[in-house]
Amino acid sequence: MESVQFLEISSGGFLDLKPGGNHLMMIRLSSHPKEGEHVKLTVRFAPGDQRIDVEVPVVKEEPK
Prior knowledge:
Helices cover 0% and strands 25% of the residues. The protein is mainly beta.
């Protein structure tokens, strides 16, 4: 596993976030969401600083 500052998506392309592939890990949270809850995130796109608010489910999946 390797940490990156950003994930690049080509124009017209897509990016799947999933366990074992590209995924998000959030550390140093002030509270820890439980599996089944939903977390609100803001995804920022550059250039242009375009932002989209999303709500994602909290899931726990064991590494394969």
